[in-house]
Request: fold
Amino acid sequence: MSMLLKMFNRRWWWATLLVALGVLFLIRLGTWQLDRLYQRRAQNTFVAARWNEEPLNINREAIPTDLNELGYRRLMAEGTFDYENQIVLSNQQMPDFAPGVVVVTPLRLPDNKAVLVARGLLYYNDVQEGKLVQYNEASAATIVGMARASETNPDTPIPDKPLLEWHRVDIPAIQHQMPYELLPFFIEQLPEPGRSTVEMPLRQIPEDVQMIGDEGSHFSYAIQWFSFAMMFGVGYPFFIRWQELREKRIKEENATVQNR
Reply:
């Protein structure tokens, strides 16, 4: 009780207030990190559940109008690749930081429509040197991938001739150079089981899927902030006690010197 009274006396009340505010702030940081942890766990659970569902076959099943309903859900499509009308997305980066492109090829479906398929990364030099054809795969294909929304920009000018290089998958703009109707989304093709990680075009699992099970550092950060709060809260009364004992000892030493 005497220590509690000291903490709020005229000398120490302002320091006590600052320490209390600091402790509350540190506790808030800790609870915020725990909230982030719970959100991360919920997201991991959601991603894992969607990812583990059977791929939705767009040849047989309807695609939701809102692509958000397909978040992390795999799609399957069967058709024929049209390499004569494929394009590339420039300004990409390879894993070794070299300039790259994403090769995007229309997959013609049995209903005479087509869906653009981002087949993976290639080195930019292969486009410039006319080597793109060597990365053509079997024409008849069954692919599995993730639905991606058109990267539409209303300010994109309509080209007056077919373009090979594009900066984004702007389906309404690309539609003007295609001889068939394109679906309003594109598919980012996933690597096939057993596919080499260095086989070109490079195909990758989405980062969020790769991170399933990884909860990050939120728990350790929460423990860190709560520990700091405890050190301040518990250590502060000991600091007051130490300071008063120190001052008392100094006064006694000064009194001893004066009496000599």
About this structure: Residues 2-41+216-259 form one domain. Residues 3 and 237 are 7 Å apart (CA to CA). The longest helix spans residues 218-259. The first strand starts at residue 56 and ends at 57.
